[in-house]
Amino acid sequence: MFGPGPSNVPQRILEAGSNPVIGHMHPEIFEIMNDIKSGIQYMFQTQNNMTLAVSGTGHTAMECAIFNTVEPGESVLSAVNGIWGERAADMAERIGARVNTIVAPPGGFFTNAEIEQALSKYRPAVFFLAHGESSTGVLHPLDGIGQLCHKYNCLFLVDSVASMGGAPLYMDQHGIDILYTGSQKVLNAPPGTAPISFSERACQKIFNRRTKPVSFFLDLSWLANYWGCDGKPSRVYHHTGPVTAFYSLRESLAVLVEEGLENSWERHEKVAEYFHAGLENMGLKLFVKEKKARLPTVTTIVAPHGYDWKEITTYIMKTHNLEISGGLGPSVGMVLRVGLMGCNSSKASVDMVLMALKDALKHCHKSKV
Ligand code: GLV
What we know:
369 residues, alpha/beta, Aspartate Aminotransferase, domain 2, Aspartate Aminotransferase, domain 1, 2 domains, 7-stranded mixed sheet, 3-stranded antiparallel sheet
């Protein structure tokens, strides 16, 4: 599974998920949820009490973040340098926000000066940024942006679905107010749970709203109670938590804790460098020009000239039993995408992908133009 996710699920995590189903309100599941909360606090490098996992994928967490923090008529600014900024803008529009965007071409990113100019022009209540833009392969710099947002009295919302655990991110130090990720990328758990955390500033805004969030399922007051984050003595039934998905998520966080976050970041960086050198040796081009802005977890390769990218991905799946992917959203037709996340981030995986790509370029049809 070398696409942009889901990645392979190691036996240990699969086994955790195959334990017997217990009740979603049993004391034992609350203990498991408490462990998950601590694991997420470590992974996000945050002390936020309001830290939990949403029942759903990264998109659910994205909606949870936006639906809770934004009220109809409020201004939202979304940084669009790929599909995730587009989707955040779409979600905010659906709940009646006034949405503005700053747009960079696929493969590009924003300077702090550009961000500050837009914050000062639009005065948004929330600013959205994707840390790992999996559609274009960009790792967005974070330094100083949280401070800028706070200067303009704006909450800083960051999508780290594709980057979390694979590239340095310190939620509290970076001044991030709302951060989320997914279970199926570096964590190597099955898709279906999405860690999320809210700063004190974000909670202040959310719990002083004039209107109820549009979604009952994603209402943070309910979720906070289910996850024991609201200080109330007992938890009330809200929805039936996906208990076996919680087992797997807990195990995947334990794997990350055992390796250590810094070691995981370093491994992903080294493996990505090895992969990128191998691609360039083959004559392939990396889509993201600036080295420091290359996402170590999902690599975008310029679609080789003269080939049909779909024929390449199909050939590799059929002949080598490996998944790699084409572009997504604005990068469709422009790139091939290879994900090396969690247990898949190894030199052995890189060698497998490089061999499959070499073979595909030999066997797929090359047009004469
Ligand atoms: C999904 O996250 C993707 O990047 O394809």
